[in-house]
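Students often ask what a 'structure token' actually looks like in practice. Rather than answer in the abstract, let us consider CoA transferase, a protein of 383 residues. Its sequence is given first.
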Amino acid sequence: MPLRGVRVLDLGILVPAALTSGKLAALGADVVKVEQPPTGDRIRLIPPYADDGKSPQHMAQNWGKRSIALDAKTNEGLRTLLELIAIADVVIENQLPGFWKGCGVDFVELRRKRPELIVCSITGFGQTGAWSRLPAHGLNMDALGDGLNVDWRDGQPHLGWAFTSWGNELGATSAAMAVCAALACVRGSGAGEWIDVSCWDALVESHRTEVAMTRRTGTPFSLRQMPSMALYDTYLASDGRPVMLGALEPKFWRRFCEGVGREDLVAAHDQTAIAFAYDQFELRHELETIFATATSDEWLSRFLEWDIPGGPLYDVPALMATQHYVDRGIVDGDEGDWPHVKLPFRWQSADSRAGAGLEQPPEYNQHDLEVRSDWLGHGSPAD
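Now compare that with the structural description of the same chain:
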């Protein structure tokens, strides 16, 4: 694995750090998760709990890691933590700026002594800026970064329960990529880096089209304001499931029209390289009638046969029931066990997927003696 031999110390207590170190573990890094006594990181406490009392968030995000409990507010805990940092290649943390310096961990000084050290600080809003001191959970980062969808009921906004924060997901992916880039720099020049990852920045970067258009034209622009697009939209199938059609190119639209026996609609495409059929409401009405004649599964079969982009809108249980889910092998584990959702790419030369074969997420402080032995060369704190 590409990161075999890289030692990563995860000081995080919430999702962005866990996701980041999890991606690095899947790439082969030796990840040690430092947990705060007496309960460990907060992800362990996030409901709903399974029948074994464990949090699905913790079990999904911490494969391939080892756990050691340290209280940095005690002299012994701080001493051991600094010893681990002195061995680590990468330190990941996600506290507000200045927190660790207040605990006696000065990353500026540590990097002065060890320039090759990589520190990755993941926060909601970054190390600088007007909001840098604002405490962050996933959804308030999303709210301030145009990443939150709100349902309005009785004139009031409602979110419902949300496991996925796009700020968390994008921030963690950016952090893992930045750590890998910094490791490449260490191998080339010997110099590490202190990486400032803002989950809010990651959200803004994902809105690059709206930002570019707004800055270029001087007029506020949002993709939510786009007109109706008959050739790039969803339609209800006969079983009530929405089906997405993506017949933007002339070849795809022609195949669709021929497949449904409506060659008379071919001319609705303006024959440019890509056409969306903006505000063609009569065409949309025709397509609504066409899609209502078959089930969503039938439409997927037709799209595969006709070689057309499109497909039903699946939720997670529905996608897990598909043959493609089985074929891709992205999830390990037998029915009833905690599954491991691996990284979304395969090593073609080895015919394997990154993250295969990792150990289950650790119990709290499970690897205390093992980590002290492997990293520090001694056993218990008294040794």
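One point worth highlighting: The chain has a mean pLDDT of 93. Ask yourself how you might have guessed this from the sequence alone, and why that guess would often be unreliable.
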